[in-house]
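Quick check before the chapter quiz. The format below is the same one you will see on the exam, so make sure you can read both the input and the output lines.
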Amino acid sequence: MPFQPTLASVVTEGCDLHYWYQGTGPLLIFIPGGGGIGRQFNPIFEHLDKHFTVCTFDRRQTNDSRVETPKTLNLAQQARDIIAICKDLGREKTSIFGNSGGGVIALQFAVSYPEYLDRVIVHEAPTTALLDDATYHLDRTFMLLDVYRASGVEAAMAAFGTEMKGFEDSPPLSRPSESDFKNFWEREFLLFTIYCPDLRKIVKNGVSIAVAAGVKTADAFYARTTFPQSEIMGCPRFIVPGHHGGYEAEPVAFAAELIKIMQVLEEKKTSL
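Here is the expected output.
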């Protein structure tokens, strides 16, 4: 059905967390990455709501999910925010889709709170520590932070964008506010870029998980990370439509591929 979600909020750990959902069936929560805004997933709702209760949210201290005192990103707390949404909806488990930094949160969720998970899809999570050129990306991370501190958000985003791929013919995408970008650079960028949860623990936890990279992303660093992620976790790696924001730019094709991935993961679970 057309995008007509139910709006809701839940107070958890000092944040009035705003979320919205639509559809019937198992719960599927989409986790935003840098900038933290959930509206980037709105276009895909109507293409999944016959299969899932589709849900997304503004991550804490972004957009409508404000806190009194902003703090440095706590990935375990970000995972607990998703649990709070799950419980507020009366669900015992949820599947999650995490994009970019949201994918790092999804991996941390699978490490820390596997009992709440059904299936997990991690889309282009930038776990640069796993790459052969990890030292380059470590240096580049601090270079980009220096650009932000010296010249501000727009200059930092322009420098960061030089290694983004596949956006040449992209339709306009949702853009976080200046304050949300500032929060990203001041409190989130470093951890999202250099931290990698213990993927071996995810294997031990028996989490049903897959990783995915966009066909237009090609060999960008955040697509290359999916190879070692898949190898370490022994999980499927999928190529999905579009670029880093393919779910927003190509929602029909992206949704169809997500449904297939979920079916593969379910078949894999039932065969064990």
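If your answer matched, good. Strands lie at 6-12, 15-23, 27-31, 53-57, 94-99, 117-123, 208-214, 237-240.
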